[in-house]
Input
Amino acid sequence: MVFVNNTKERLVVSELDNSSIETITDVRETDMTFIWNVGERMNITIDKIPYPLKKNQIIFLTEFHKIDNIELESARMVRFNQPFYCIVNHDNEVGSKGLLFFGASGVPLISLQDHQIRDFEMSWEMFCSEMKKDELLKQDMLQAILKRMLILSVRILIQTTAFHKLQKRQGDIVREFYWLVEKHFTQEHEVAFYASKLNKSPKTLSNLFSVFSTRSPLNIIHDRILIHARRQINYSNRSIKEIAYELGYDDIQTFSRFFKSKEGMSPIQYREKFDRASRQLKTHSDTNIQA
Output
């Protein structure tokens, strides 16, 4: 089921199985997606990293996550674009910016407990019912249901991660840091830049992160740079020099040293390794088809 209007707002609410994989990979600009696994198992590979989902786990993705492969029995997907509901402009309503989306800290995943499943089932039933209607204020109603699901998800993520150790104000600072990294990581590589944006000192920011995480602010910045570097090396034909320049490195040597310190190999070696693995996978697939 798809809701669209003349001003390009778009919402997709879909029941999924293995025959509807194309629906999942049809990601458009500014799309944000969450997928609720209601089958016994689901395996999704994002940016070459596998994420096995158990029943009643939900994963949250943006347009920038590259879905390589997905296997599932049964799942439910909600996908909306920025014109339909902007999580940045409405952060005070749901608090998902820098947490469920644009977190710069990995792919968010939550697990629903038995007493929480009914809340999500009710939202899903409301979504399906409203999508079939053609009545006044339909978009407003759909946005309200979406906000409900996002708020429920934020609550679970906070309760089940080290985020619960933070006071609300501290949590807001961390979320804003994640969001700022997402916006500026291609050019700004130093903690001092982000600390100044938050009106904090680098030391204060580092102390805050030490309360709930083993990863320092600098680790998070570096990890975000590395994620983008891997994507560009794996999925584009751009030269290493072009990738380095896009990521704010004036010379390829500095970028190569950074990449090798994290991956244990140079960017060129990493691309060659990926190309070999892709060729082997294709050969294996062709052999199975012929057999």
About this structure: Confidence is low (pLDDT under 50) at residues 284-291. Residues 104 and 208 are 17 Å apart (CA to CA). Strands lie at 2-4, 10-16, 32-37, 41-46, 49-54, 57-62, 67-72, 75-80, 109-111.
